[in-house]
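Section 5: illustrative case.
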């Protein structure tokens, strides 16, 4: 057995050092990410904890947050409606010790959930974790834990191991034509560190001019923290004729893997195919860094019991599959702590699916 310790301020540095050293921990595990979680709708409490061995060394880091759902205010352990990342466990543990540590992690989660009156916990094995442990590509680690109901999503990934030229050759032909035709009208720059942080004022202006965005000062500050820490970079697009910033793309990058994090494009310049051009430039930058994989985001397919994509989400998927049609499985599992809440959530999901599959006829 290991000792369980809640993450207090005095443990933060040790938590981050542990996560930095583990291949299955990524930016989502970093204490810096807790700043973003606190901005999420319904955030209630930071419940992160660690397991430590007899020497006091951390052997597991467990991201755990309490949030109220947006439908009836019920408390859940998740990320504002999205799943928690699977715990990071020391790569130095042998198989038997790793299994014991994970068993204790899940028992502790159950205890914390009961103490906080959480009605459900949702967890996912992220693409970055699967790439760190190739065996997880065909084996779901969440299958081993009783009471967790399994489901899967798909996420769009771009393989960059063969370099930028090969990756860009796979891009939808029309997209490549767009970028070539507008190349003279846009000036693209990669911004890092303090230069990127300084550009956030321009970012905020562009974001306000993008009708699809919902600007938030706290989220902007979190972007600055990520850039300052070297965990992200910006692609800035400037309209040459107007000499004005017209688009930004923010990409997270850590341990040789990348994630499409945020984008904003001034509505007045969208005919310049700004998003297409910035994505091309990001792929070139990541390939130059030796990046192995670039996750573009969730694939929104037909409606399912767990996911009813709207027109915006389907449009985003169409855009991103123009850069890669490779899909990776995203393993997700959830555990309900009361029969009543399982029924309530299932009824809501079924009603939403029925409405999507059998829409009411329009009335004049």
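Designed sequence:
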């Amino acid at each position: 057995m290991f000792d369980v310790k809640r993450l207090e301020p005095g443990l933060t540095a040790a938590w981050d050092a542990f996560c930095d050293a583990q291949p299955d921990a990524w930016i989502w595990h970093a204490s810096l990410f807790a700043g973003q979680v606190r901005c999420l709708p319904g955030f209630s409490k930071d419940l992160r904890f660690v397991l430590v061995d007899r020497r006091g060394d951390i052997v597991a880091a467990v991201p755990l947050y309490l949030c109220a759902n947006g439908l009836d205010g019920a408390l859940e352990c998740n990320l504002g409606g999205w799943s928690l990342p699977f715990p990071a466990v020391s790569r130095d543990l042998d198989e038997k010790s790793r299994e014991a540590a994970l068993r204790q992690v899940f028992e502790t989660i159950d205890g914390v959930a009961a103490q906080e009156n959480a009605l459900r916990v949702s967890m996912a094995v992220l693409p970055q974790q699967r790439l760190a442990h190739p065996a997880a590509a065909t084996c779901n680690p969440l299958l081993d834990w009783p009471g967790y109901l399994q489901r899967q999503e798909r996420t769009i990934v771009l393989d960059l191991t063969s370099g930028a030229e090969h990756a860009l050759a796979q891009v939808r032909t029309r997209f490549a034509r767009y970028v070539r035709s507008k190349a003279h009208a846009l000036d693209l720059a990669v911004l890092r560190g303090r230069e990127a942080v300084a550009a956030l004022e321009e970012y905020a202006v562009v974001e306000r001019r993008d009708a699809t965005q919902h600007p938030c000062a706290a989220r902007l500050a979190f972007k600055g923290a990520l850039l300052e820490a070297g965990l992200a970079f910006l692609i800035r697009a400037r309209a040459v004729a107007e000499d004005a910033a017209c688009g930004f793309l923010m990409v997270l990058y850590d341990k040789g893997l990348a994630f499409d994090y945020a984008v904003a494009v001034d509505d007045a310049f969208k005919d310049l195919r700004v998003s297409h051009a910035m994505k091309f430039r990001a792929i070139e930058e990541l390939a130059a860094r030796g990046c192995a994989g670039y996750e573009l985001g969730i694939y929104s397919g037909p409606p399912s019991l767990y996911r009813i994509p709207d027109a915006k989400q389907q449009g985003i998927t169409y855009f991103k599959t123009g850069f890669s049609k490779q899909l990776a499985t995203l393993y997700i599992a959830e555990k309900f702590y009361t029969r009543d809440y399982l029924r309530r959530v299932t009824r809501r999901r079924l009603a939403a699916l029925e409405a999507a599959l059998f829409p009411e006829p329009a009335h004049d």
